Amino acid sequence: MSNSPAIATNDTSFDHYGLTEGEVIGLTVASSAISSIGTVSNLLLTLAVLSTKQLRESFTAVLLISLSVCDALICSVYVPMYIWDIHHAASTTFENARGVMGFCLFLASLNGELIVFLERFIYIRFPYHYTNWMCKKYIAAATFCTQWFIAVALTLPLAFTRTPWYSIFYVAVLMAAIVSLHLYIYCFARQESQKIARQYPAGSQRQRMPLLSKSATTVAMAVLATVSCWAPIVILPAIVPPSSPSFKRSVKIAASFTSLSAAVHPFIFCWKLQYFRNALVNCLRKLVNALRSASHLTFR
Prior knowledge:
The chain is mostly helical.
């Protein structure tokens, strides 16, 4: 594979932001997989929750629907625009629209993830107050509005500046808050598990401890995925100076990792949380039966 900068077929002046031919192909394949898998998985998770009455009444499920819809938009709209951008010389209007929309969607996704972790924190730390505090319709509406209001408010300054450095600070603060919540949840769950082990016989521990450990493990996996995917874009300015000629190339490579977080969330939540996994299985079963019935009627 050639290591020389890739040259566009229709416009020899466009050097694909300094990306090599192999990098363009690799980013295209990876981003296409992220787009297709992330879109389908997030939409299936949303459909599974909406089609299950028990989950529709769950506050956690409502928060995950908001997060999944946002992640589905990232995978279905932003990622294809990113693929087009690295293959063709994007116009100023296209580049500005992609940047503003992507910035808003990614912030909304991070806000939604932080809200989910806050909900898990309250559930584990204040289990006796959880029902009174969280299980109210206006709370769900308020968290949804807060998630998007902050994202839109922080996106508006893009109309006045091409380089919103405040965004890096905000994302770094979100990362610190998410990691801090995870550490607290892990330590608290560990203390509670040890307390249960001392107070109850071994036979009943299996019934009481899994709930805490599953919640802590789910949060841990989501935190690890988020930090891993966002670390490249957050630390990039400290490694490659913005004035460097290779900064744009580095940004295009690092930006591909941020989209990955939107595609892995459904797998984490469905794999570790049984009620979401069961709802997804039932949803897929209904879809398969519906397709079989439609094909049977078609060929009759």
